[in-house]
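INFO batch 0412 | record 1 of 1 | parsing
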Amino acid sequence: MIARALSASGLLLAAGASGSYLAYTLGEHAALLPVALRARGPAFALGLGASVLGLSLAPWRPSAWLSLAVTGGLTAYALKRQWLMPPSAPRYVPTLPSPSGPNGLVLVLPDGGGVRLRVLARDRVALVGPWLVVHCGLARSVAVFNAPDDVVRAVLPHRSGFWLNVGRVGELVDGVDGVGRDSGQPVLRRLAATVRTEASWRAVAPEALLHAPLGGGLLASERRPRVPSARGVADGPRFGVVDGHSWRPVDLADPGPSQPGQYVISRWAARARGCSGTE
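INFO prediction complete | emitting tokens
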């Protein structure tokens, strides 16, 4: 009886934590943010512990093995999604370019160097020289900040990017505009971000350095937004830039001059942030 209760409790804890995460992300239930953020560690730790203990007390019960397998699978999924134990921002270094095709997209850094978006999408946050760069592949949001002295982690997604944990700030910071969630005040200083095709970047800056993590980095797969705020938005994935609170589309082959503090984001994600110009 005790073994069965432990196995069931472990499964329920892991399933509850995973369910809150999916409801927060895919269902866009923002009220679940505290649960998804603070309860994840204890829930998975207690869930795995209870499942292991339940199995040790009754190893002959198939349900005990099933509980451990499901709990372990949910924990592995949370780790893979960088939700349970978010890694700190890796350091990118100059690297020899490898073929990516003329239409591959590059974030152009303030010094003219570049970072491939499909590499950055896997890490979400990265340190490149004196800058912190943040990219959400789903919302197509790209922002560049002056790098803080503290460790930075992308701890949870939101509808247009990621919430960042910046050292000992004590509050979540929006990875799109660098503003603290609770204070509403800028925590990170945002610089201009420009995205363009790699072919056009090479045409205007043939000697510029390409940056990547050691080993070159893995390419993220293309993802389609399926969240409620992306539905019904005409040409929703279209890249654009936000100056102030106004969004405008850009030609990625020739995005034009950048404005101080602008960030890159898709049409649907800009609308979700309340930006004008997305009609």
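INFO post-check: The chain has two domains: 2-80, 91-272.
INFO record closed
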